[in-house]
Amino acid sequence: MIDITTPASKNYFTVQELQCRCADCEEERRNGESVRGCASNVSVQFLSHLNRVRERVYCRPMPVTSGYRCTLHPIEARKAKRAMQEGRPHILGDHPCGVGVDVGVYGKDAHYLMQALHVYNWLHAQNELPQPFTAICPNQRGPHHKRFIHIGGNTDVPGRKRPWDWTY
Predict the structure, then answer these.
(1) Is the pLDDT of residue 106 over 80?
(2) pTM of the model
(3) Burial (Cβ within 10 Å: 0-12, 13-18, ≥19) of residue 111
């Protein structure tokens, strides 16, 4: 049986992978300033689940192409602007809440990663534990080097249904 409770033997994800990579955060880093988009904003519990999936179920590298995103990140700023234009409240997504990553993967590895995430969630459900991954969303279009699977762990709130899967 796969152990879903004890910590993984190590952290498989780097600070560089998990930190916000927007131009504002990168400039703050270059200037030696305190950075709002640092990797410490990623939930320790979410990261622990990712490490266990990496080590015990998927057993392959999981390169993070997008980790934490500050609210000034262009993608997050676009979402906020769109919500304002549509006259609805903006609800933060997985990345700025510290419970979202995009893993660069395609082909059979994408298939295996999605299986691993669902198995891990299923094991939690079988043990009457909350499922840690509430969004498992593939983007498998376009050039291979731009394909990814979004993994999110946000909770269900009005305006953000969870669990919820989407494709890009």
Answers:
(1) yes
(2) 0.94
(3) middle
Residue at token pair 């622990």: 48
Three-point CA angle 76, 93, 75, nearest 5°:
20
Torsion over CA: 28, 44, 139, 104 (sign): positive
Contact 95, 69 (CB under 8 A): yes
**CB contact at 8 A, 37 and 70:** yes
Hey, which residues does 138 pair with through a beta bridge?
Answer: 149
Asked if residues 155 and 110 have their Cβ atoms less than 8 Å apart, the reply is no
Amino acid at 69: R
C-alpha radius of gyration, the chain, whole number: 16
Estimate to the nearest angstrom the gap between the alpha carbon of 42 and the chain centroid. 9
164: left (phi over 0), alpha (psi -120 to 50) or beta: beta
Across the range 127-154, mean pLDDT stands at 96
- Tell me what pLDDT residue 33 has: 84
